[in-house]
Amino acid sequence: MSATDYLERIPNNVSLKDNRRLLRALEEWQPKFLEWWRDMGPHGYQAKDVYLRTAVSVDTQGWAQFGYLRMPEYRWGIFLAEPEPNRAIAFGDHKGQPAWQEVPGEYRGTLRRLIVTQGDTEPASVEQQRHLGQTCPSLYDLRNLFQVNVEEGRHLWAMVYLLDAYFGRDGREESEALLQRRSGDRDKPRILGAFNERTPDWLSFFMFSFFTDRDGKYQLASLAESGFDPLARTCRFMLTEEAHHMFVGETGVGRIVQRTCELMREHRTEDVRAHGGIDLPTIQKYVNFHFSVSLDLFGSEISTNAANFYTLGLKGRFEETKKDDDHRLKDATYPVADLDGERVAMREQPALVSLNERLRDDYVTDCARGVARWNQVIARAGIDVELTLPHRAFHRAIGCFSDVRVSPEGRVISQAEWDARRDDWLPTKADEAYVGSLMQPVTERGKFANWIAAPARGINGQPMDFEYVRLG
Ligand code: BYC
Ligand code: FE
Ligand code: FE
Question: Which residue ranges form the domains of the chain, and what is each CATH number?
Fold first, then answer.
């Protein structure tokens, strides 16, 4: 393992200084990245000192360093997890062969597309979140937002490193294009649907971090199995950062739920809007929206792309090496939800083309665990309500359910019934306006907006009234 060059212009553990060509490409890209960050990164806070965690090495003991930093001075760099000696490809037609240290020529286009799709989501999320700083519920939350943002910036660096190091001129062109697409832009949108949605308020932000960053976890875990070793290693390190994003989402929603329950009890009412809280039915609608939009990110239920990625050894399953089967799946089947006339039914399908659905299943199970923890908060308050995940066929834009209307319980319904019930199931303009009306910035140390509870503990052992962002 090469040592970490932390003091270089581009911190890295890939011996960048010994690869002049690559170093030059990345040094040319760096000012363009910073320009993008200034234009599209967190609005209004670029010159403030933020208490951030920076990766300084990849070993589990010592990778994080905390300190005040202005975001444009964040040490974005290139960190790959330690190589696994003699690593072999774990699945597909190349199973058992040594993992590739270079891109196999015939898989170049496919691999590049996977890397570009992954890379595109990272700056997209920063763009989606760029105005949230103006309405933060506390300095603690403001700091967490910025921590997520700089790390998504680093995830972009991770993919750009792969493109520049392994894909020649095409790769450099893709690296430029990653800075040119814009979330929600009609002419040059980001690649995947959820990354063109707006994140207008903090309830949306926490939902996004819970549901959409969790897609990141599952996609990165699948790419961490890749036979292309540099991709596997970079994704493994990205996963360590992803855990914090989901923590922000889960605890953020959990604290809103907690505050809502406190208001319900205090005022003996379900209508907490009268008391400046976010009522549970509104929270449920946001769950319905963000869960369904994130399910789309896994692609179609039946996908020959997914089968090819797997067979070629480019993208594995979640925890591939822990699965007890032949890791080729040519003769295996997998139960997949499908439309059977007017109802949703399970059908055995060839396992290879079902890999998107299988990953979605792993994801759904994980989401359900988080929702159960929110429900514990409600139950502890003695309130008899449960949040639920809507049926997987609800409100889908990708895959076999995209042409039908389905209720949150999974009943196929008519367009007329959908039109009549839609506002009970998904956030309305009025709901968004109400949530938006709560978004008044709270920037006094140790204070929190009325609609969210304080967290259980501060960052890195710091007290709750710590100055997580210096606004002075
Ligand atoms: N929107 O065969 P199919 C993260 C396209 S999140 C628009 O089903 P496939 C993060 C598809 O491209 C993780 N288009 O799809 C989170 C294909 O196009 P072609 C991101 C879509 O290829 C928070 C066609 O439809 N990482 O890191 O099996 C903050 C047929 O589709 C969508 C990745 O996604 C969509 N939702 O699977 C920051 C990993 N879905 O071939 C960051 C890399 C599908 O007809 N990507 N299409 O032109 C992949 O593994 C795959 O591309 C997908 C799609 C799983 C996304
Ligand atoms: Fe990311
Ligand atoms: Fe993330």
Answer: 16-470 (1.10.620.20)
